[in-house]
Amino acid sequence: EIFDLMEKFAAYGFNKCVVGATEVIDAHSGAKMRVDELFANKPADFETLSLDEKSGTIVARRVTDVIQNGIKPVFKLTTASGKEVIATGNHPFLTADGWKWLEDLRIGEAIATPGRLPLAKGDSWPRHQLIALAGFLSGSLREEEDALDLRLASEDLAEDFEHAARCFHLTRAEASGSEVRLRLPQPFASPRGASTAVRHRVGACGLADWAQGQGIFEEPAIPGELFTLRDADLELFLGRLWSAGGTLSSTPILPVRDEAMARDVQHLLGRLAIVSTVRRGASAWKVKLLGAGAIERFHHLVGPHLLGRDAERRAMAELILGRRRAAPEADVHWDPVVSIEAAGQEMTYDLTVDETHNFVADGIIVHNSHSAAYALITMQTGWLKRHHRAEFMAALLTSDADRTEKLVAHIANAREGGLEVLPPDINESARSFHGRGTQIRFGLGGVKGVGESAIDAILEARERKGEEGPFAGLFDFCERVDLRRVNRKVVECLVRCGAFDFTGLPRWQLFGAIDHALERGQGAQRDRASGQSSLFGLLEGPAKTKEKKPGEDGDYPAAEPWTDKEKLVGERETLGFYITGHPLDQYAEEIKRFATHTTAEILARARDGESVRVVGVVSALRSRPTKTGKLMGFATVEDLAGTVEVICFSGGRRPGPPIPGRPPARTGGFEVWQPLLETDQPLLISATVQMNNRDEENPMAELIADDVTPLAEVRARRASRFTITVDAAQLNTERLQRTRALLGQHPGPLAVELRVQIPGDSLTRITVRDLKVAPTDDLGERINLLFGAPVVGVEA
């Protein structure tokens, strides 16, 4: 009963819908198709055009479902380029700030439209048909008793049309000046009083029959079949059409007879990645090219097919050469909204698109609609998450094992719910994540660099008859697994992610033993393959391996210790995130000193427009081109309390005089901060809170970056002394020499002070006069590691 109620509730309340007249594009043929026709016919494997947000390209994606969703209030949205779409108020459109509902869009706010409409393949028409169609659509047709007279814009066009007409079967054409006369056969007898009409003539004039079949004599329009043609055909057709009445000034414009033809021409230009606008003029509708890039593409693609416009083409070429070369047209064109008007009530439809979850509707990129079945799935998954949380989260992690940003979010969600996420373990991990009780064990399939073949080899060795039982350590592992499928790279990844931590040995010691373990393992496998066994193996007996304690299966040599940062970097490179610790753990006190909020506090109680400072590391970063062609960034910033999204615009955001209570205008921008955001170093981010209201019921705080600074740089600016505090018993000649060498490797502005604590006595302070250092994280970690305890401090 609950599921039925949820299904009905979703059907009436939450679906995002378009109307039946909305047109989508067949990604393979290029044909336009109305959504209500798609609903009625439901063609199998229909693919339409969609935006891949990760790559920023227009791609083909499968429509998985089309559902009729009832009569609802709808609104008409119009853009600056003249594109229009009718949809419900909660239908999302893509803006520079992300997806927004139609009713939340502001006038002047730019939304995403396709900069090009790529076609997987295209049909082709004979050249004479394309020329004839352009001539009929651009000329003035007059019918006489035994002929058709077509007046064109120039003698060149008339001569061109005459040659094309003669290519049709049994067609007589004569050009005189700018007119072409087509001789027609006598019509069949018609009812008394009926006028002679072209549709009564059959069979004897190939051109007239072809034109009648295209509907040109009844209602002149671009036939639907033209949209399925290859680009070269469109270039020829548009060239001849533009030759008749289009201007070739600094901004080319084509007047056409009605709105439908104007939008069709705009669509055909979009196929060629030529962006244009549609406007209603005093006497005609006009299609106008938009931007230097569109004009250049028009000149190169359509220009060669213009007739009798050589002087204007040369002037256009000189204008293009005199300008800086335009940037290539992007797949996304940002088109400002000029109006949103109520459009009554209409039957609405849900269109669901696979993978990318958006589609091109009436020339505008809109979000995937959702069918009522999603509410049922939501209810079911919610029940599983509540009653079988570990198993559910393990399945969710497995489904997104190759998507690091989603893994990070899922693991944070699991930990917030009281689940413990354990690192990979070669004895405990399965191929996928698995949950039990309150624990989730990381799956081997989630370790970067460990392929399917290597996982198969590990599982086979673990379950092989006669060798059942856990691996004793790295040496035992290399002897038992097939080293033809598990190479050194795989073993390194397993060590760095923590899969051998069960041995109790530090990872740097395990890493230093890899070469020796592989060498011994290869020798043992060669002996087995040749049917030999070593003397020591015979003495040990077949069960000896199972009796070994973890970490006692071989000689693990001493090695240079890793810092905590090096250990965590290994986890992040192999797993995509940190699992046994966090790089910010050691900065807890500095975070309290420099940050005004944690990410959790921002999400819980920060106010819109509030200025905040947060210290964190970037766990995910993506960028998107703006309407000006620059890049803006979206960084997921992680601290010890959670994550928050930080939006980084390009260049300054608040020029002019300072605003009281707000940070000053920034001089940076994403292009300046991007190298910092791509590192794993702690950053101090000054930002302004912005409430994201895309989901009205759950508004989410996000940050608009005002400044991004490395924490080490902030620390250095506010510090004057680098201190090392140790007990006298910890000092010896070797440690002092190594400490001095480390200090010499990090020159900087801070004085160094050695503080020696004598047990039961005073603290002696010694200033190292000939050394000044930069208080880098690496320096502090290596000195702490040298003394085996936190001894480094930075003072103001």
Structural class: alpha+beta
Silhouette: elongated
Major sheet attributes: 6 strands, antiparallel
Question: What percent strand?
Answer: 25-35%
In DSSP terms (H or I, runs of 4 or more residues), the helix count works out at 26
Q: Which radius of gyration do the C-alpha atoms yield?
A: 36 Å
Low-confidence stretches: 1-14, 188-202, 539-545, 654-658
Gap between N and C termini? 66 Å
Query: Quick one: how many beta strands?
Result: 31
**For this entry, what is the oligomeric state of its chains?**
single chain
pLDDT averaged residue by residue? 85
- Helix percent band: 25-40%
Question: Explain this structure to me?
Answer:
The protein is an alpha+beta fold. Helices cover 33% and strands 27% of the residues. α11 packs antiparallel against α12 and α15 crosses α20. The longest helix is centred in the middle third of the chain and has 16 residues. The protein is elongated, with a radius of gyration of 36 Å. The N terminus is likely disordered.
